Amino acid sequence: MNELNPKIPNHVALIMDGNGRWATQKNKTRSEGHLAGTNHLGSVIETFFNYGVSHLSFYGFSTENWNRPKSEIIGIFSLLTKSIDSELQHIIDMKLKFIHIGSKQRLPGKVRKSLVDMERSTKFSDANGVLSLAFNYGSRQEILEATKRIIDKNLKSIAIDKNVISEHLYTAGIPDVDLLIRTGGEKRISNFLLWQSVDAKFVSTDTLWPDFTGQHVECILNSYNQM
Ligand code: IPE
Ligand code: IPE
Ligand code: MG
Q: What pLDDT, on a 0 to 100 scale, did the predictor assign at position 52?
């Protein structure tokens, strides 16, 4: 919850789903669907932060998405680097701190570099908000890695509490999720921020991700208080 205004969620997490179905409906290829999914990205981000949300987390590629055809995966990776190139200045102008959440292992060097460069270029100490991108992310993987790191530190079991676990997740320092939105109509969490979403309100909207705009964002945020 936003301490200054309880009507505004502090941390919103978003599962961007429905690119494939959008493409099928329009007789286009899945890659065209993913490309269309990047169209409103800038204005959607802007709408959330202008509304007063301070943390926004997008789900871009899950650990389960490695099961997709290789050509589709390569297409998603190339779109990620292109989107970072085209959005970087916008993110800097909005003074948002960018964080990659997920594993850097297995990602191609170019993708890793884009993510790291974006993090480096947005290390504002007085940021207006935090934008996280979950890419090669899975909650179970995250909790597993956190557990290993805690064990490697030789911490005594008595010293381990919920805070210690939170501090070892990719999301260390980021508040819990208040509102989880999924586009595309499915009502699944799909291994996204499971630990962080214990108290989150959940909204599943039928709008497919490429059709999701700032107006949809405002509509959901306006109804947050009644949920
Ligand atoms: C979400 O759209 C994008 C990613 C998971 C990368 P989908 O590709 O899952 O689209 P649908 O669910 O098949 O419509
Ligand atoms: C969830 O979408 C993952 C991302 C948006 C990155 P999917 O389309 O991959 O999820 P499932 O497999 O249908 O739950
Ligand atoms: Mg999907």
A: 97
Residue among 16, 17, 59 whose CB has most ligand 1 atoms within 8 A, to mutate: 17
Give residue 98's region: left, alpha or beta (phi > 0; psi -120 to 50): beta
Cβ–ligand 2 contact at 146 (below 6 Å): no
Hey, whose CA ends up nearest to atom 12 of ligand 1?
18
* Rounded average pLDDT per 10-residue block, the chain, 227 residues: 78 98 98 97 97 98 98 98 96 98 97 98 97 98 97 96 98 98 98 98 98 98 92
- For residues 212 and 92, is the Cβ–Cβ distance under 8 A? no
Cα–Cα distance for residue pair 22/19, rounded to 1 Å = 5
Element (H, E) at 129: strand 129-137
Cα–Cα distance, 189 to 104 (Å, whole number):
22
Q: Are 182 and 188 in contact (CB under 8 A)?
A: yes
